[in-house]
Amino acid sequence: MDDITKLADVAALDQKITPEQLSARYDADDDAFSLLTVAEATLNRVPAGVTMWLSSPAMRTAWEEVLAVQEGNHQLSWWNKMTTAGIEDPDTLRTDRRLAKIRQRRREAQLIAATSAAPVANSLGQTLALQRLKDAHPEETDSVIDKLRWSSGVAADEHPTPRAVQLLQLSDDQFRDLVAHDVQGRVDADALGHPAVLARWYDALVDLGCRTFEQIGLEAENRNIRAWFAVPDRHLIDTRHEAPIDDWAPKLTFLTHLRVRLMERSRLRRAHDLRLSRQIHLPLQQHLIAAHPDEYARYQQQEPAAALSFAAPLVGDRRPPHPAAFTGYAAVLHQYEWEVKWIYDGHRVWLDAWHGDDWRAGGRIVVTAARSRSTGRSSWRWGKPRFVFYSRRYRRYALLLDAQALGQIAQSNPAAAPSRLLKAVVPQTRDHLEALIPPDGFRWRHPYPPPALMPLDRR
Fold first, then answer.
1. What CA–CA distance (Å, rounded) separates 27 from 37?
2. What is the pLDDT of residues 380-405, one digit of tens each?
3. Could you write out the three-class secondary structure of 49-68?
4. Chain CA centroid to CA 132, Å
5. Does the predicted TM-score (pTM) go above 0.85?
6. What residues does 349 pair with on adjacent strands?
7. How confident is the model at residue 447 (pLDDT cuts 50, 70, 90)?
8. Alpha carbon of 406 to those of 335, 389, 400: distances in Å?
9. Distance from C-alpha of 362 to C-alpha of 390, rounded to nearest angstrom
10. d(C-alpha 449, C-alpha 427), whole Å
């Protein structure tokens, strides 16, 4: 077994390592799994098998939870460095960049988990027609639901167990204290995940989050609850001179683990809803449609406007945060048949455009911009975009003058850009190349965010 104890060990793994080999080596090692998760989120190059294993159906729940914990731990580390060494200290800035990458990867993991568990939705016209069918036959609907609940085992599983009954009989204060101890890892309360307890568990977690927010000078609003009580970086920046570190650090750690429990509760709720959809609602719909086909067809015909106007919402935005002008740049590149990938690491966004499968032979254009923290009105501000072209003749990257030069190069794709369109040659140094050029490995880790179950390309 290859022992991994630091991020460099992950980068040094065999580039052809498979998910099966990773599972055999590290599935039972929590420390190694955490290290692999951080490395995959922060390093420019890790084996493709690591990404495939972490995002696989069997591992993606643990992957998302570890990313949430690491996001909280790195935010606390960044805050400690900022309060002791200063916001512009190089060590603080390095930690900030790593935090941004972990945070970005956690958002992508969340989307992968949510989209893979989401049931296939009917169109609005079908939904309205089915509802009218249920309303027209209430006794038949109730009878079928009752039979399906018992035959599928849902009714038995939803019936409270003795331990679930004990939890439901606790007073609000006792139940909240139990949930707090569970968040801290001081008790084992598996019964919190019982379907009969999920709603009360969620209420207690939200109550604890609101109370802890108040203790660090924040008022919990709906957007904070939807974000699972993630502490805004701006608040930590604004309070860095007066905040008591020894008092706040345990509270920030508590909020980190509270978020993990909220994630687990959300996952259990989604799993239960998905089971209800597959074992009760879908068979019920099929039964009603088969029993009353003419009536269902008539209801559908009476809902033409809804059926035609409905468009299924996208689950999340398929593009990362970016300057508004990047949408136009992407459109220009698509117009001239460049394959464009949106790549984002939490601080910098790239439009990475290839002409063909091998950019060294077919051509490559990169548009990139970075955002940095500002003490002004906004906590983030995008820098000026930079346009990069790979000169196949000289095998070097060059900076283009402006967006107009980008359009001309995208149209002609020359082996070497005319000098009148060039601004400068990119120095062949690591710092310059890492800032301007996304690693090829990001190409199979994205497009942003990677659609669930989509095969990875260019491994």
1. 12
2. 688 899 999 999 988 899 999 999 99
3. HHHHHHCCCCCHHHHHHHHH
4. 37
5. no
6. 344, 369
7. very low
8. 12, 9, 7
9. 10
10. 31
Cα 313 to chain centroid, rounded:
17
Residue with tokens 């309205």: 128
Q: Where are the alpha helices (DSSP H) in 159-312?
A: 162-169, 172-183, 198-215, 222-226, 233-238, 245-276, 282-291, 293-301, 304-309
Q: Which of 66-75, 82-91, 155-164, 345-354 has the lowest mean pLDDT?
A: 345-354
Alpha helix (H) ranges present in 87-171?
90-117, 124-136, 138-152, 154-158, 162-169
DSSP 369: E
Q: Are strands 386-391 and 396-400 parallel, antiparallel or unpaired?
A: antiparallel
What letter does residue 415 receive in the DSSP assignment? S
**Coil vs helix vs strand at 26:** helix
Residue with token string 């296939």: 120
Count of CB atoms situated within 10 Å of the CB of 288 = 20
- 3-class secondary-structure state, position 344: strand
Helix (H) or strand (E) holding 387: strand 386-391
User: Burial letters for 142-178: b for 16+ Cβ neighbours within 10 Å, e otherwise?
Assistant: eebbeebbeebebeeeeeeeeebeebeeeeeeebbeb
Average pLDDT over residues 432-455: 56
Whether 3 shows a pLDDT value over 50: the answer reads yes
DSSP for 308-320, written as a single string: HH--PPPSS-SS-
**Greater confidence, 115 or 293?**
293
| Type of residue numbered 59 | M
- List Cα–Cα distances, 77 to 35, 56, 98, 242, in angstroms: 16, 29, 11, 17
Could you give phi then psi for residue 319, rounded to 5 degrees?
-125, 145
User: Band of the pLDDT at 140, cuts 50, 70, 90?
Assistant: very high
pLDDT score for 428 = 82
pLDDT at residue number 306 = 42
The predicted-structure confidence for 171-229, as pLDDT tens digits, reads as follows: 999 999 999 999 998 887 889 999 999 999 999 999 999 999 999 988 888 888 887 88
Q: Which tokens go with 255?
A: 């909020």
- The Cα–Cα gap between 228 and 46 comes to 30
Separation between Cα atoms, residue 279 and residue 133, nearest integer Å: 19
Side chain identity at 439, as an amino acid letter? P
Is the CB of residue 350 less than 8 Å from the CB of residue 367? yes
